[in-house]
Amino acid sequence: MNILDIIDKKEKNEKLTKEELKYTVDNYLNGTIKDYQMAALLTEIDLLGLSEEETINLTDIMLLSGKTLDLGIDNLTDKHSTGGVGDKTTIALIPLVASLGVKIAKMSGRGLGHTGGTIDKLEAIEGFKTSMSIEKFKEQVNNIGLALVGSMENLVPADKKIYALRDVTGTVDSIPLIASSIMSKKLASGASNIVIDLKVGSGALVNTKKEAQELASLMVTIGKNYHKKVACLLTNMDEPLGCAIGNALEVIEAINILKGKGPEDATNLVIKLASLMTSMALNISEEEAKIKVEENINNGKAYEKMLKWVKAQEGNINNIQIAKNKKIITSKKEGYIKKINALEIGKLARKLGAGRLNKDEKIDLTVGIVLNHKVGDYIKQNEPLATIYYNQKQISDEELLSCYEFSQEKVKKPHLIIDLIK
Ligand code: URA
Does the annotation count 185 as an active-site position? Predict the structure, then answer.
């Protein structure tokens, strides 16, 4: 077997066997297959796709490329988001679900992009520890029902190396490669129930509903192959989620969601995801689960669980620093907000220092943008549109205003939930 024959076979759009895929992944990991050879194969896969069988085989090979986590705890439930601007759902969601007796042992990333990943965001809470031994991780899940740490080194090493190459070869958007990448990591972390928030829109990994449905069905099929329950929620990412964009600001918004004081769209999404996770874990209908979820927001139990979780990971919830410098940007126009470009707002948050483009860049957890209004709202001239929290780096009024489109006609609020595939 050799890589040139494998590339040639894919070029002719012939199916690769499991042995050929394993040969490729193993030898790429050990350095025998070079980046340029792997890039050639990934490009062919991006152009021609993979069959369902090839995708399932690839997932299995990636999953077994490193260690898998077995905490010995039954019926663990996990959540994954493909990431979007202002997406702080995990921080509100996991204590909420844990407050209903659902067990969560979550691994999250730092992530590259407009703002940090969940791990960065949580580090905006003074003292919050995002790494711990496996023993402590397990003990905390058993004691309080949830724990969250950064991804472990030796979990799915094949994905780490292949993803880094996809990132620089324009092959991130291949549906089978995304499915095998996400599912190998979720399967390696050992959960029985997996809910995936698949973002669709201008600020997201996939831009159309059709592509998202294809990706979701594939991930559900892969999960079924491992006897896991998988639900994939397709959600809109054309405007930022909620109002806060920036690490500490997003943690504060997540806390507000748990206190029942969050923005409507982000709160609805947290409730929907929590209902799905709870219904899968407790084997009850989604409607029953939703009643329980809303009850635990209203009676304060979800927030109490957040306090226990933060304390268990040594954080001080009363100390979440935000930048001292504030600038309010007002509207130069009057009308209904038709569009707030999520991607462009994300880039501005990164310009303020809230995100990073390469993994060694340091981010400023205290800066970001808080939107006063969302799509569909009516705005008068000179009304505040957003508040910028900044330190050394700034953005201009024009830069922010260029993310908005206005209309004189009434604009409907966008539907956040596009589809559910399970
Ligand atoms: N997120 C992942 O984990 N993998 C992908 O391939 C794309 C998004």
Answer: yes
User: CA 350 to CA 363: how far, in whole Å?
Assistant: 9
Concatenated DSSP letters of 170-229: T-TT-HHHHHHHHHHHHHHTT-SEEEEEEEESTTSSB-SHHHHHHHHHHHHHHHHHTT-E
Q: Is the pLDDT of residue 41 over 80?
A: yes
- Catalytic-labelled residue, pool 22, 110, 166, 272: 166
pTM of the model: 0.94
Q: Which CATH number fits domain 77-312: 2.40.10.10, 3.40.1030.10, 3.40.50.150, 3.60.110.10?
A: 3.40.1030.10
| pLDDT tier at 218, thresholds 50, 70, 90 | very high
| Residue 211 Cα to ligand 1 middle (Å) | 14
AA identity, residue 182? I
Interatomic CA distance for residues 208 and 110, integer angstroms: 26
pLDDT digits (tens, 9 = 90+) for 285-315: 999 999 999 999 999 999 999 999 999 999 9
Task: Give pLDDT tens digits for 13-37.
Answer: 999 999 999 999 999 999 999 999 9
Share of the chain above pLDDT 90, in %: 90
Please state the separation of Cα 52 from the chain's center in Å.
Answer: 24
Cβ–ligand 1 contact at 82 (below 6 Å): yes
- Of 42, 62, 166, 178, best ligand 1 pocket probe by most atoms within 8 Å of the beta carbon: 178
Domain assignments of the chain as residue spans, ordered by start = 3-48, 77-312, 325-407
C-beta of residue 171 within 8 angstroms of C-beta of residue 40: no
